[in-house]
Design brief:
23 helices; two-stranded antiparallel sheet; disordered C terminus; 71% helix
């Protein structure tokens, strides 16, 4: 079974990364290169987190074997001196998750350097490539290189400085350690900021989720803000589509730039594509008119704007529907709390038919007990447990440098497990600890939003730039996070100053003693800032500052917050009435069809067989109706859309000869 646990975790982590990418990305529309780069970055980072507990347990086994051998040797010597005939050495059994020697160093070296190449070289280039408005691969590569010229120029300057250092001090190992230390220092600086926010915000979010009134008010607040963003996205899209229409009308079919215009049109929504179809005047030669045509560079800029506007419009539209469903569900929960039947009743019937799970397991009674009774207590208990974990992490971050006595709680737990040879407990304790740290950090990465440039939106609504930026952040945050975790459990000799075998991951990172001011200063005292960041997050200082700067945030007692809550409540009420009207209309049509559909079919059949034949009169009426229609009539030309009336062409770009035959319009009269 050697290495079986490693193989299983490699497969499980891959599917976990694939699931998250499917939730946030769009496999059908986004570029394969973007999806592959993001998947590889997420996969490598998650792999480091999941495999590190196996590395720790393997080192613990090796340490205990060495200590056991020393104890056996000492005991054997003592008993030999005493001429004792009874000797029973204590055997240290290897668990099934033990990884043989030589595998982990190679594994960590491949994973670490691949992730670093991704975050510092490939992903920045792929970001610019995916965001470029170029129409060819060569054009996109050129744009990406130009945008990253300063970025790569800085690397060349640093690389030149390191070459000079190597020439003076030809010690490649120290040079490698300096590079790794610089990258980890940058990551640790950002790690403490994100971790300090997540340690407080995650338990508080679950506690607030148990307060249904608070959660419903916050949903109203989000609805008001999202509706403003949605209206702005629609207005921006209409402006961009107007520019596209003008460009499409000015550049005819035989213009050299027409292929670029067609590429832009394919990126537009379907309804706008139909409105901006070609007409007969497209076959006029573009040289016959002295018009000013846009340049290829301006078309690339327009192409980039179209991609961004369409993606933003789709994202706000999907998010509005999701938020509307959440608000309606919370209102249903508030109504069902006083139900005496203990049956959960929804305001609107689900759009999809109920699954077998809903019919046999999650019945209305079970749903009522969960939503109205058990869920809030479960969230409160979970918030308390997470709060205790957060307190333990903060205490350990402030005391992990103390080895005598051992003050770090996680180091105490691991050392107690080592004494009892309980390697499963070591793996579980390490996994739970590092998983909680990663949850606090990664959840903050998924929550933060930098205007409209970086925003991870679920339900396949994240753009390519944000996906790759998240991959860059994960690759830069995960190595210092793992080193910080090893410091918490006293597995890093640079911090604990203990003479014991190091993990394979620490050996790849190199000895931090090369830069003593970082190993003995920054790495030890900088994590203590988590206390200040946790206090600032607890009192919502960042939220208050953003609110003062004009970015509306959800504040408990604030006039602007109250106004937005009232606005959001009215918006939800209006959407609810709209849904109710649609559902009532469908119910009336269904009842009418069930009640009178069969009678009307029987009546129609009876009239068809009982009506006398008068084919000559029918033929005369058909001819009169056909003569009453103008010869150049086309029903599709009657449109109220300003784009169609202004451009003088009908929807879809269909010619009169391509429309449906007029001789068959009244065949069934």
């Amino acid at each position: 079974m050697s290495g079986a646990a490693l193989g299983i975790e490699i497969v499980v982590v891959f599917f976990l990364a694939l699931f998250l990418l499917h939730r946030y990305g769009d496999f059908r529309k986004q570029q394969r290169m973007v999806l592959f780069g993001t998947l590889l970055a997420w996969y490598l980072c998650f792999l480091i987190v999941f495999i590190l507990p196996l590395d720790v347990s393997t080192v613990s086994i090796d340490n205990e074997e060495r200590m056991a051998m020393l104890a056996v040797t000492a005991e054997f010597s003592n008993q030999t001196a005493a001429n004792s005939s009874v000797f029973s050495p204590k055997v240290c059994y290897k668990p099934w998750s033990y990884i043989p020697d030589g595998i982990m160093p190679v594994f960590w070296r491949v994973v670490y350097w691949t992730s670093q190449c991704l975050t510092w070289l490939l992903l920045p280039f792929m970001q610019s490539y995916a965001r470029s408005g170029g129409f060819s691969i060569t054009g996109k590569i050129k744009t990406a290189l130009i945008e990253n010229a300063i970025y790569y120029g800085t690397y060349l300057l640093i690389f030149g400085s390191l070459l000079i250092y190597v020439a003076v001090h030809p010690q490649w190992y120290e040079l490698q350690t300096i590079g790794i230390t610089a990258a980890n220092t940058w990551g640790l600086f950002l790690l403490v900021l994100l971790l300090g926010y997540g340690l407080v915000e995650i338990p508080r979010s679950y506690w607030n989720a148990s307060r249904r009134g608070h959660l419903l008010l916050k949903t109203y607040f989000k609805a008001a803000k999202l509706m403003t963003e949605k209206a702005d996205a629609e207005e921006n899209l209409e402006d961009i589509m107007e520019e596209v229409r003008k460009v499409s009308e000015s550049i005819k079919y035989n213009h050299p730039l027409r292929k670029y215009v067609d590429t832009i049109l394919r990126k537009c929504p379907v309804d706008y594509q139909e409105k901006m179809g070609r007409n007969m005047d497209d076959y006029e030669d573009f040289d016959d008119k002295q018009n000013t045509y846009p340049s290829e560079r301006s078309l690339e800029k327009l192409h980039k704007q179209v991609i961004y506007a369409v993606q933003r419009h789709n994202r706000t539209r999907v998010q509005w529907q999701i938020l509307l469903d959440q608000a309606l569900h919370l209102e249903d929960v508030a109504k069902n709390e006083t139900s005496s039947t203990h049956q959960f009743v929804h305001s609107f019937a689900p759009a999809e038919p109920p699954s077998w799970f809903s019919r046999y397991v999650y019945t209305p009674t079970v749903e009522w007990y969960w939503e109205c009774l058990l869920k809030q207590w479960f969230y409160r208990l979970l918030a308390v447990v997470l709060s205790l974990f957060s307190v333990a992490v903060v205490w350990s971050e402030c005391t992990f440098f103390s080895t005598r006595p051992v003050l770090s709680l996680f180091a105490v737990f691991i050392q107690l497990a080592e004494k009892d040879y309980n390697y499963l407990y070591i793996e579980m304790a390490c996994f739970i600890t590092i998983f909680f740290l990663c949850t606090c950090v990664y959840s903050t990465v998924f929550r933060i939003r930098v205007f409209n440039y970086y925003y991870l939106a679920s339900h396949h609504q994240t753009d390519a730039y944000s996906l790759q930026f998240s991959g860059m952040l994960f690759c830069r945050l995960t190595p210092p996070l793992c080193l910080n975790f090893l410091g918490l459990i006293h597995m890093d000799s640079a911090i604990s100053h203990q003479q014991k075998e190091q993990t394979a991951y620490t050996s790849i990172m190199g000895s931090m003693r090369v830069l003593s001011f970082i190993a003995n200063g920054f790495y030890i005292y900088y994590p203590m800032l988590i206390v200040i960041l946790c206090i600032a997050t607890y009192f919502s200082l960042g939220t208050r500052c953003l609110n003062l700067l004009g970015f509306q945030q959800f504040m408990g007692e604030n006039d602007m917050t109250s106004d937005l809550i009232d606005e959001g409540k009215e918006l939800i009420r209006r959407e609810k009435r709209k849904r109710q009207r649609v559902e009532d209309g469908e119910n009336r049509r269904r009842e009418w069809k069930e009640r009178y559909g069969n009678q009307r079919d029987d009546y129609t059949t009876k009239n068809l067989y009982s009506r006398p034949s008068n084919r000559s009169g029918d033929r005369d009426r058909i001819e009169l109706l056909q003569d009453a229609e103008p010869l150049d009539f086309n029903a599709e030309m009657l449109s109220d859309d300003p784009l169609e009336s202004e451009s003088g062409r009908h929807a879809g770009g269909r010619y009169l000869s391509m429309s449906s035959s007029r001789s068959r319009i009244f065949d069934d009269v």
